[in-house]
Amino acid sequence: MTTNGSADAGGKQELRRDVTVWGSYTWGYADVGADIYAALGLVIAAAEGLAPLAFALAGVIYILIGLGYTELSSTYPVAGGGHYFALRGLGDFWGFVAGAALLLDYTIDIALFAVASAGYVNFFLPAVFGINPAHIIIALGPLHDIKIVWLLETMVLIFSLMFINIRGVRHSSRLNEILGAMDLILETTVVMLGFILAWHPALLASQWHTALHSLPLSKFMYGSSLAIISFVGLESISQAAQETRRPATIIPRTSIALIFTVFIFAVGFSTVGLGILPWQQFSANVSDPVAQIAKSIPYLGFIAGPFTAVLGATILLISANTGVMGASRLTLSMSQLHLVTGWLDKIHPRFHTPVRTIVIFSSMGALEALLAFLTPSAMDTLGNMYAFGATLGYMIVFVSLIVLRYRDPYSPRPYKMPVNAKIQSGSNTVDFPVLGILGFLGVTFILFEVIFTHAIGRIAGPAWVILCLIYYFFWRRRNHLPLFGSVKHNWEKEQIDVLTSAEEYDLVEEYKNALAQRDKKVKHDVSKAAPTDKIHDNR
Amino acid sequence: MMFRKLPPPTKFTIIDKYKLFLGVVAVILGVVILWRAIVVAISPPAVMVSVAFIGFGVYRLWLGYTRLKQLKANREKTNGSG
What we know:
The complex is a heterodimer.
Chain A: E1 5-7, E2 13-15, H1 21-47, H2 51-75, H3 82-90, H4 92-121, H5 125-129, E3 137-140, E4 143-147, H6 148-167, H7 173-198, H8 201-214, H9 217-227, H10 235-241, H11 247-274, H12 279-284, H13 289-295, H14 301-336, H15 355-373, H16 378-407, E5 420-425, E6 428-433, H17 434-453, H18 457-478, H19 491-501, H20 505-538
Helix pairs in contact in A: 1-2, 1-7, 1-9, 1-10, 1-11, 1-14, 2-9, 2-10, 2-11, 2-16, 2-17, 3-4, 3-16, 4-6, 4-14, 4-15, 4-16, 4-18, 6-14, 6-15, 7-11, 7-14, 9-17, 13-14, 14-15, 15-16, 16-17, 16-18, 19-20
Chain B: H1 14-39, H2 44-81
Helix pairs in contact in B: 1-2
């Protein structure tokens, strides 16, 4: 949070670089690793016995997204994440659209993970009260089935996070490291013991074959588009990039380790889960699916179930907090790049935190949670929206990745997406990212699935982006800034400053050399062209 | 594309031991899943997960082996120069 930041002489806020290799990995894991706690039940409820396939398909696209993010985050280690890459590659307008999509995701992140965290808390309620108060429903006018206790729990969690962040929580990398490590150990243990002690291959095979023959395609598409939410959170590594020591060396390693760990867990959990319990049980318990698996492990279930529920509730709350912090970081970056008003980033004189951003975006998360509880399934509705924001943002990031290979071939790329085709562009040879195109097509397909199958996401998602665009045009016009064009930036100087502050001195040298070579070449081309021009003029 | 090189290791840390342990466990788990799936009821997800675990485990073991080799070479270099 901003307590972890500092201000330079010009008053511009900067984030201190104190995140290590393990810190960077666990920072990402505390965010992305938590997703499976929320997504598993939703995906199995939709894709039934084909859930492992849904996770695998979404996972392959996620791996491509992850590789793209790894390249961009290590090339541009700044806190803006996806919106910054879009702005560098495509200009202010698309930078704003990507920022709006990711901002939607951060507010949904607050709502969805607070709801899911409360869901894991509710795992204990039947044992305490004899009944499950989370299932107490009320009717409000034409709206029925409002789970009032669950809604109130969610509100308490969101407003507690808001309060804590206003007072200035030092978002310690250490806390993330401890929780990330605990989560990693717990998930590994549940998957391993589940496979060894409780897994029935016959149950998995029967559910697979039943779904293969009877599940409608639209339901599978719905499930696979929801599966993408179990992989959302790569933004957090980009966000952490500005606080990571030697990001060019560290980020590629941690990102790729994270990508594959999360992929294996997502496919592993769905495979072990469907070999232990019928899919209907997940459908009836979408709020605490991992605890349901842990509870079913023989001999250890009585302790593993509650322990998983406690850890699930905690890590999901941390993930919700990532939403509060991510929104602050994103708006800070957007205001510094003249995309939104700087009013949002006003620091509170006593608490030294961006109170306005925290209050506005946490309240927005609370409102989204409230509205979601008015629908038949709050988690499903929020999952819909989450998938829309993520896929739209990732799609723009892929286009930026491809465009930046052409527009900015001089920035050193400590990691490049594999499989590139050499293409001649003017006098330069550019590495055209073939996997980038496949990733773009994959994300576009998932966005299509979201629009095709998500009744709420296809309306509320675009509505959010349109509302944000109205604000953008209004604000840019008022400040006499171009509506579709871009504000002038000295990217070369900025890139040198960013790499220097990251202590990546060898990359600074590499970059300066590449720019010098380019200038030399341009000068040479001009001097070569000049005599011809003279002759032409004389004629 | 290859990663930028990290400085050679100076000692075999607890994290290295954990990674090797995880590699061994992943390979064993992958083999157990595959064997059970083949014996009881084979299904694509079971095969996919078992292959993923075996691949992950082998990769981890290979990383651990490479690191041990680097450590050995580094020690020999230090002893030689000393």
